[in-house]
Amino acid sequence: ADHYSQARQFYKSLLPHEQRHIVGAFAFELGKCEVIAVRTRMLGRLMLVDRELAENVATALGMEGQADKLKPAVAAKDLE
């Protein structure tokens, strides 16, 4: 039921310029999505991976503070 710890570990393992690239890629793809509910849901899911990631994507989309509030079955953990 832990769907977020591995994604969190991957994102945190990236160098800062790689993290910026991921943010840009999410913003680019979500920016094409015309259904706002899909964008807010995805921002909510990104929030479960990493708050900074989600906030940076939201800022790039001009959607600060609009992430859905989601509760995962198992909260993401920092892995070794």
Give a quick set of tags describing it.
80 residues, mainly alpha, 4 helices, 0% strand, globular
Description:
This protein is mainly alpha-helical. It has helices spanning 5-13, 16-31, 36-49, 51-61. The chain is globular and about 35 Å long.
Helix-strand topology string: HHHH
**Percent of sequence in beta strands:** under 5%
Number of helical segments? Answer: 4
Q: What number is the mean pLDDT?
A: 95
Tell me the total number of β-strands.
Answer: 0
Helix content: 55-70%
Give the termini distance in whole angstroms. Answer: 19 Å
> What would you report as the Rg, rounded to the nearest angstrom?
12 Å
Morphology? globular
Sketch the major β-sheet.
none
**Secondary structure category:** mainly alpha
The poorly predicted ranges are none
Task: Present the secondary structure layout.
Elements: H1 5-13, H2 16-31, H3 36-49, H4 51-61
Helix pairs in contact: 2-4, 3-4
Brief overview:
The chain is mainly α and 80 residues long.
